[in-house]
């Protein structure tokens, strides 16, 4: 916490309040469920059941919590001319998710600060994912 200094706005350290236990049970990956569930408060009975292996909804559709869906929602904001903190406009928005992230300097700075803070606090090295994971193209076909 004390190692995370200098985050650019609008980024900030969020502290979640969770119940703690006096005798934490060791993580047992063999007991991990093969699905997850999410819902939106006040949105009626719209529960999404997601296959934990594929990341897709049990209906085969794209999850509302996926990067692909968030990227599509970002484009909706741009089309409606709603200002974002990214500095990206509909005219300058790249079609590739990774390229959009790379255009936002404050995001890249915040990520650099966070990785350095983890290292300084002795929390280990940030695990990098394959770049290909974020090299998908904006498409309205997913909706």
UniProtKB/TrEMBL annotation:
<dbReference type="GO" id="GO:0006382">
    <property type="term" value="P:adenosine to inosine editing"/>
</dbReference>
<dbReference type="InterPro" id="IPR002466">
    <property type="entry name" value="A_deamin"/>
</dbReference>
<dbReference type="GO" id="GO:0006396">
    <property type="term" value="P:RNA processing"/>
</dbReference>
<dbReference type="GO" id="GO:0003725">
    <property type="term" value="F:double-stranded RNA binding"/>
</dbReference>
<dbReference type="GO" id="GO:0005730">
    <property type="term" value="C:nucleolus"/>
</dbReference>
<protein>
    <submittedName>
        <fullName>Double-stranded rna-specific editase 1-like protein isoform x3</fullName>
    </submittedName>
</protein>
<dbReference type="GO" id="GO:0008251">
    <property type="term" value="F:tRNA-specific adenosine deaminase activity"/>
</dbReference>
<dbReference type="GO" id="GO:0005737">
    <property type="term" value="C:cytoplasm"/>
</dbReference>
<feature type="domain" description="A to I editase">
    <location>
        <begin position="1"/>
        <end position="136"/>
    </location>
</feature>
<dbReference type="Pfam" id="PF02137">
    <property type="entry name" value="A_deamin"/>
</dbReference>
<dbReference type="GO" id="GO:0003726">
    <property type="term" value="F:double-stranded RNA adenosine deaminase activity"/>
</dbReference>
